[in-house]
Amino acid sequence: EPEVTQTxxxxxxxxxxxxxLRCVPISNHLYFYWYRQILGQKVExxxxxxNNEISEKSEIFDDQFSVERPDGSNxxxxxxxxxxxxxxxxxxxxxxxxxxxxQYFGPGTRxxxx
Amino acid sequence: AxxxxxxxxxxxVSEGASLELRCNYSYGATPYLFWYVQSPGxxxxxxLKYFSGDTLVQGIKGFEAxxxxxxxxxxxxxxxxxxxxxxxxxCAVGSxxxxxxxxxxxxxxxxxx
Lengths: 114, 113
Fold this sequence. Notes:
heterodimer; A: mainly beta; four-stranded antiparallel sheet; 11 strands; B: four-stranded antiparallel sheet; globular
């Protein structure tokens, strides 16, 4: 069964460094998402992406964040200058269609900022 | 504003007992409703979804959920819980009008032998 994959599974970085989290969505899906889950808290929407542009973003997704689909398969989340409060599990998801289409989630990348 | 409430943070049930996890949502239009399960260290796996039609939906692993519009609820049920069901369960709402999900804060399920 096709699945969303994410690399790395765990990333440790120092405050102020840039990180890139990578995702490979399901191949025929058109809509891509990033969510994050701070330890012990709810899963929060960050951004959705369709047709090579951001379709929606939350107030969390400020200028330090960016997303890109650099080729036909990868979908990346870049955090330019990490802060301690960026430590969280980051989930990538993809869906085939709208409206409100079922989203398939990857296993997540745990980001630890020290 | 859209929101999802899961009033129970932790629930403990005995193996073989029935289970009901509560979910209430706030959304003005017709919601699309989902239940996901997250095992420790794992991602989110879809258990079931409601878009329209029959308000009682069946999912994987013997779970079912009932959409009650009058109560703005989408409670998850299972008639007989297995030890492997111990995990965290998240209710989520999506919609035609927005391209994202809102998640509840989750309910951690413990299963006693």
